[in-house]
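Quick one, probably user error.
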């Protein structure tokens, strides 16, 4: 049986040593008790025993496997600074003060310590632009440049000093910016890898200085593979590629995705450099297998790392896809890689870049019915931002033209872009009607590839549509016109309801009037409420509006706007002009909008006939289904004198308008041609009708 070992003579019995409480509870209790008192010396064991001050600490040390006897050569840790030992003879507060002093001394011993400290003070003052007078700000900037000039490289890699350099660039002159850019020459690839210095590159490039751009961008040549995989440098590299680099510089950067030789050897003739992989492989067909494998490996590496938001990646993926043979195993495998990305982040990111959106459209065109269905499901909850995006809206148009299952297309896309509940319907429809890109996603089903819907700025859209239409001939079974009519039928009720409830908001803009016209001419269903709502927008006095108050002019009456008059004339005619037939192509069943509109404007019809909307009144007389034409003719004949005055004189012009119309030289006078007839042309034609 083991005998009990006697305690050392210097030790004493602890109070509460036989307590059932856990040692850690005693430690916390003791810490709370003695935190405001001076810590007892380690050698004063007899006093501690009598008072019981350190009993809890001793037990806690034992519980953690520490020795019970305190080493006199090692100071005990203070309660207020656990883990940081206080010096012998000092309490926690004094120890912390001494540690702070040591940290300050170490910081001051570093190179440029005083200069960095001063730049931080200047930055603190300069960053509050509205609180610093212009003269004082200039003095501070001059002082800041005096500190950093010649030593910019020493400042930019310090996280607190680089902010001051960015502020200096913000308030700098072009010469000062160029001086900083030249001083940093040779270090930009290293700066791009820095967590803080990478923003300095953006500050230099955001000024759109061609000389600075040509200093910075070439320093990334030969380093694309390394930097695109770097957590910090990849984003600044892609920003440079997407928004700053010239066409030739982009080609140099993109070529590095095709193999090591394109990184090591660059074309001497910079004007002839190309990033088009088809042209490169056409010149050297033997390299096709090696180049495609290298490109595939680089793209797959980024996809596996979930780094799928880079524009450069999307451009490289498009080049790879375009050089695969249709129907090949390589193409099928590539499609699987894209579609099997977890959470669909790759496809969603691709939707918002030019090359990415085109690639998604091509994947839809070449894919099977199942592939198209799976791709469409990935974009769920993303269609609304896509429809307003410069590139994303093209994927919605491709879905309209390529998916044979129109029920799936309608259920997937329309609830998101049109609205899922009545409260948001008006907001969504107003956005669709007036946004330059979103309006295409609705009006395309009504107008097709019309010039009014696809202006010159959207020429790329037409190229993609023609490309997928050519592929569709071999991959789709449904007739395009049948597909279009089924989609129009699926959204007709929703659009007619939106026009009936929001007509006043929609007709305030030219895009809104075009949207209303398309809906009323091309949708199916009962249009009575919608026609009545649109006609009601013409109610009221059509004379020019006056100022509501000193600052805000009143909203002009719709009859005074060009887009309003055009909308009314088209609806009265009951169709659009067909160039091939040389006449109005009326819809069936007819709208009979003339009979709906006339009772509302009858009271002010003379103002319409002598104002900017005189052609609307003329359209009423020419409408074949207008039942009150004789009544209107009688009203106009009774006011023939007013019509003649408007036909010859027209509306008076302001002095500003007259000055603008005066030709300033004989050359301009000759170029302007013969003077236009004075007066209201529409009123003149009405008089001929009378």
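Nope, works fine. Designed sequence:
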């Amino acid at each position: 049986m083991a005998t009990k070992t006697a305690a050392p003579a210097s030790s004493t019995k602890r109070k509460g040593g036989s307590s059932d409480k856990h040692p850690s509870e005693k430690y916390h209790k003791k810490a709370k008790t003695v935190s405001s008192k001076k810590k007892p010396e380690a050698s004063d064991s007899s006093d501690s025993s009598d008072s019981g001050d350190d009993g809890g600490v001793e037990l806690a040390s034992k519980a953690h496997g520490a020795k019970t006897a305190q080493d006199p050569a090692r100071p005990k840790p203070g309660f207020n600074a656990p883990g940081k030992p206080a010096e012998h003879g000092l309490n926690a507060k004094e120890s912390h003060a001494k540690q702070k002093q040591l940290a300050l001394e170490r910081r001051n011993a570093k190179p440029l310590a005083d200069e960095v400290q001063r730049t931080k003070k200047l930055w603190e003052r300069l960053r509050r632009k509205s609180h610093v007078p212009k003269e004082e700000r200039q003095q501070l900037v001059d002082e800041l440049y005096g500190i950093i000039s010649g030593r910019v490289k020493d400042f930019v890699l310090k996280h607190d000093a680089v902010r001051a350099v960015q502020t200096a660039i913000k308030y700098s002159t072009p010469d000062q910016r160029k001086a900083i850019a030249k001083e940093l020459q040779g270090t930009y690839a290293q700066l791009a890898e820095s967590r803080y210095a990478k923003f300095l590159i953006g500050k230099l490039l955001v000024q759109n200085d061609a000389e600075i751009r040509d200093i910075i961008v070439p320093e990334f040549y030969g380093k694309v593979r390394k930097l695109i995989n770097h957590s910090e440098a990849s984003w600044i590299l892609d920003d440079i590629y997407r928004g700053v680099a010239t066409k030739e510089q982009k080609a140099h950067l993109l070529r590095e995705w095709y193999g090591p030789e394109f990184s090591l050897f660059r074309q001497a003739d910079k004007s002839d450099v190309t990033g088009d992989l088809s042209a490169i492989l056409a010149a050297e067909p033997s390299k096709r297998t090696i180049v495609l494998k290298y490109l595939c490996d680089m793209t797959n590496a980024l996809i596996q790392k979930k780094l799928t938001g880079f524009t450069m990646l999307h451009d490289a993926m498009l080049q790879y896809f375009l050089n695969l043979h249709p129907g090949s195993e390589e193409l099928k495998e590539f499609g699987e890689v894209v579609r099997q990305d977890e959470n669909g982040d790759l496809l969603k990111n691709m939707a918002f870049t030019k090359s990415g959106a085109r690639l998604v459209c091509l994947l839809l065109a070449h894919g099977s019915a199942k592939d198209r269905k799976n791709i469409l499901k990935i974009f769920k909850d993303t269609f609304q931002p896509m429809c307003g995006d410069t590139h994303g809206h093209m994927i919605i148009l491709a879905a309209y033209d390529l998916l044979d299952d129109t029920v799936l297309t309608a259920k997937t896309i329309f609830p998101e872009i049109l609205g899922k509940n009545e409260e948001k319907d008006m907001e969504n429809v107003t956005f669709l009607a007036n946004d330059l890109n979103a309006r295409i996603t609705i009006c395309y089903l009504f107008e097709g590839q019309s010039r009014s819907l696809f202006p010159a700025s959207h020429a790329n859209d037409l190229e993609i549509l023609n490309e997928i239409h050519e592929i569709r001939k071999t991959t789709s079974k449904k007739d395009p016109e049948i597909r279009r009519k089924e989609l129009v039928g699926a959204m007709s009720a929703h659009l007619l309801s939106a026009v009936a409830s929001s007509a006043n908001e929609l007709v305030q803009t030219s895009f809104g009037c075009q949207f209303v016209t398309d809906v009323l001419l091309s949708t199916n269903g009962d249009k009575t409420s919608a026609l009545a709502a649109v006609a009601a927008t013409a109610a009221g006095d059509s004379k020019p509006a006056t100022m509501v108050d000193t600052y805000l002019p009143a909203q002009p009456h719709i009859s005074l706007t060009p887009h309003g008059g055009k909308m009314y004339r088209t609806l009265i005619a009951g169709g659009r002009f067909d160039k091939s037939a040389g006449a109005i192509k009326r819809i069936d069943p007819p709208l009979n909008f003339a009979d709906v509109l006339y009772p509302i404007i009858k009271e002010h019809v003379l103002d319409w006939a002598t104002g900017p909307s005189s052609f609307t009144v003329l359209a009423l007389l020419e409408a074949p289904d207008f039942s009150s034409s004789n009544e209107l003719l009688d009203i106009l004949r009774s006011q023939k004198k007013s019509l003649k005055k408007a036909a010859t004189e027209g509306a008076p012009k302001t002095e500003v308008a007259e000055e603008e119309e005066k030709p300033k030289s004989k050359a301009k006078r000759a170029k302007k041609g013969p003077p236009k007839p004075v007066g209201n042309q529409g009123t003149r034609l009405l008089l001929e009708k009378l």
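Residues 538-662+683-689 form one domain.
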